[in-house]
Each structure stands twice: as C-alpha cells, then as structure tokens.
Amino acid sequence: MPKRIPVVEKILSANDRIAQENRARLDEAGVFSINLMASPGAGKTSLIEHTVQRLARQFRLAAIDGDIATSIDADRAAAAGATAIQINTGGQCHLDAVMLRDALKQLDLIEFDLLLVENVGNLVCPADFELGTHKNVLIASIPEGDDKPYKYPGMYKDVDALIVNKIDLLPYIAFDMDYFRRGVELLNPGLVTFPISCRTTEGLDEWLDWIKTNARP
Amino acid sequence: MPKRIPVVEKILSANDRIAQENRARLDEAGVFSINLMASPGAGKTSLIEHTVQRLARQFRLAAIDGDIATSIDADRAAAAGATAIQINTGGQCHLDAVMLRDALKQLDLIEFDLLLVENVGNLVCPADFELGTHKNVLIASIPEGDDKPYKYPGMYKDVDALIVNKIDLLPYIAFDMDYFRRGVELLNPGLVTFPISCRTTEGLDEWLDWIKTNARP
Hints:
- The structure is a homodimer.
- Chain A is of the alpha/beta class.
- Chain A has helices at about 15-30, 45-55, 70-80, 95-105, 150, 155, 175-185, 205-215, and strands spanning about 30-40, 60-65, 85-90, 115-120, 135-140, 160-165, 195.
- In chain A, helix 1 packs parallel to helix 4 (about 95-105).
- Chain A is globular and about 50 Å long.
C-alpha cells in the first residue's frame, strides 16, 4: 500500500534569502558582523563608540546605523573612528536584509574586519528580520526595568549574547537582577551575558574579549 | 470650456473608522480616555499606578494594558485600584483600534469616568494607529537620552501632551534638557510638557490637574 511521504521544506522568506546573500558577501570578505538591537536609548551608539575606540588598533571597523531619521548615530560612530554609514528607514521600525544589502554596497568590504550594525531602537520588530550578520546581540538597560524579558520575549529568545548596560544606575533604581536573569534563562538558557556601564566602562573588557574570540576563530 | 474639478476626499482607513466608533462609544458613556505611549520601561505602568491611586476618589477608573505577553501591567493597574483588562498582542508591536474595541466590550462603560490605555512599549509603531481615545500622551524618560525627539519624530509630532519621567535620575545622567526641548518644539510647538518622577512623585500634581481639567470640561 502506497504511503504518503510528507515533504517538509523550509521555504525561506524573501528577507531570509537576502540575509543569506549578505552573510555570503561578509564571509567572502572576511568581515565578522554583529547586529545590535535594543530599546531606544539603551546604549547602542555608546557601545559602538567604546567598541570602535578600543578595537581600532586590532580591527578595521565599519558601522552601519539604522534610524527613523537623522545621522546622529553614524556621526558618533565616525567620530569614534569607524567608517560609518547611516540608513534612514523613513519611518520603518526595524532594519531588514534589503536595507543592509544596500548599505553594504557602499563599503569596500575587503577593507574591513569587523562590522557593527545598529538596528532601529525597538524591542519588538527587529527580532523578526534576520539581516545576515554573524551574531545578534541585545542590549538591555537597567532603567528599562527587570520585567522586560517577560514582556518582550521575542527579542530575548533568539539572540547570541546579551549586554546589560547602565549598571552604574543600579544604586538609584529598583531592579531585581535575579528576577531579570530568571526571565532571560527561561527564554534563552545559558545566554552569555555582559553587565556593563558605558559611562564608567565597567565590564567592557569582557564584551571586547567576546568579540575578539568570535571574530578570529 | 469644461474644467476638471478635483475631488479630494479623505478616505478613512479601516483602523481609523473603528477608532471613530470607539470614540463615539466612549463619548456616549461619558468616559474620558487617554492613550499612553512610550519606549519599553519609560514608566507607563508606574504612571498609571500613581494616577489611579491619586484619582480614585474623584474618578471611576479603568485601565487597558497592551503587551506582547504577560498580564504584569494589568495586574499592577488592578492592584492600584483600577478595573483592568490586559490585551496580549501576541507579537504585534502596537495596539490598534480593533484591539481597543474588543477590550471595551469587556467593560460596562457607563460605570467609568476615566480610561487609561497603556500601549505596547515602542517608540515607533503606535504613532501610526489611532485608537479613538481623546488624548494621546507620550512618556519620555531621562535615561533614554536627550536626542530622542530628533530620532523618533513620528511619535513626538502628533501627541497632545508629553511627560518627561525619571527626572530624579538627572544628577546621574548626561541629559541636555534644552537640546531635548528644542527638538520637541520643532516637531510639536507649544506641546504641554510635564517633567515628573514616578519614584519621588515630583511633578505628578500638574499631570493630575491636566487630567481633571480635560476630563471635566
């Protein structure tokens, strides 16, 4: 008796196909790339500034900054020493693979080792759009509150690393780190986490070591 | 010679039509309603808690809380003394008029004077979806940084009032209030603004007075 053989195939979305192409271009050029995601004001640009300043001697750095409007972020990344490109999404609440593809065309990729992509400030939508970068990193921030993993699970569950920024504000804010970490652990067990302060630079060394380890395997 | 007469008609989107219906229902029941929008962690729920506690003697209060997941926010609003309803958007990054309509059906509106709607934490998308509430209010937060009006103009340009929360953190954070206010003024001249701290309760009286003035015209 003939049996029906189920054929299950992963059909890639248009976005995911272009993300794969982006990854191939980055790999071919030997560029290690990170997609930084966070709420508005969690410290994406500050982290990029510190990372660029501290790694400029070892890596040739590029930054691609996504925002609704202005070039404030790319200006800051450029001032820190990166080759910077601003994407203005014109209202769209996230970057997608097409936007990254278009931005990559403006870089001679062979000239770079490390690319930092700053997504639009948003704790919901960017999680749904793969860009093709090697790592997705989420920046949480102490003033946002300790309940964010529970309330924005989509953003926490698939990232490769978590930065908890603004730990210098812990004395002034009610933030239960154990409650926060339990929420993260439920969604993304064992997630590598870096508590840092871009203001005092505490914890930055561990983050930079993680980049170095991953960028030069 | 016949001239072509241009016929320009505002076609309401499906969302806007339902928003109008929501407004009509609220007006008919005599419920004054506010849509609170902000980034994740800016203090929407804390503001609702304070507002409910302080106005409970004068107003019969309801809260409708929108989140990706959990009922944390509605639980807090209920604990503060409001009749609270949680909307879980299941991933969607904003409330829309249909979600509010469905939530309103769960309230006997004639039993209430004041409705506080807490939108999903997001500084981009909620601005595009009218709910039908009487006022749209944005909560900014000191730790988010002073450049947010420039980078998220869509959210600032159409709101009816602006709350600047967490002013108790001003001593610990580089935040240029003049630069922030200039950005707001460019987008929304003369916007009524309430600097407050939900932690110390500084500035809350002015916010509560604004509600009383608008709710009982």
